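Form 7-S
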Amino acid sequence: MPQRKEWFGEWFDSPYYHVLYKERDNKEAEQFINKLVEVLHFSEEDKILDVACGKGRHSIHLNQKGFDVVGIDLSEQNIEFARQYENEHLHFYEHDMREVFAREGFDVILNLFTSFGYFEAKEENEVAIKAIAASLKKGGTFLLDFLNPYTVIHNLKLSEEKVMHGITFKISKKLEEDFIIKDIHFFDQGVPHYFQERVRAIRRIEFLDYFHRAGLKVKGIYGNYSFEPYEAETSDRMIFIVDK
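Output:
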């Protein structure tokens, strides 16, 4: 019997994922990338890897700014879409972040907008960080942008409805066994659908341990996309900048 896909493989390959999150527009991505380039002092010679790149919006904008970029994602549908934008200095590949992509192949590696913490086993988080570290050149920089579990859990909205493209998504959220879980129910043309998102509430100290074990050194921790200092009780994000 074929093995069932992990939830993120199934949900991210679904067209409904992109319907529900359509409001994540390119303008927001561009503003963050522009700030990122400024903060990290990117060089034109840098080779950049965008881990869990989705449909490639960040990779595409970085490439438009003159950088050599590779985007990787587990979703076949995302990569198929992103490949229409490929050129000599922009490529996309279907790849699992738990496996080394190109040993010491990149100057900068990015993992953006909470594209981490999906794995069922806690140990797989460390495996993924080590695989990412292995693809980073000595002296290279890795930026990981994750939700702040403290504020997310404290402000957890138990239920909501979103109407997108005529589809009413009924969403409920809960904290269960260290996972922030989002259950998504909806009907499309009379057919019921159900998907679930599961993101482990990884604390700052756990990330610090993963980085240490992967031979990475933390340079800074920021709490939002303006790169203001991280505050556990109030920050929206946990943005780690680490060096190899």
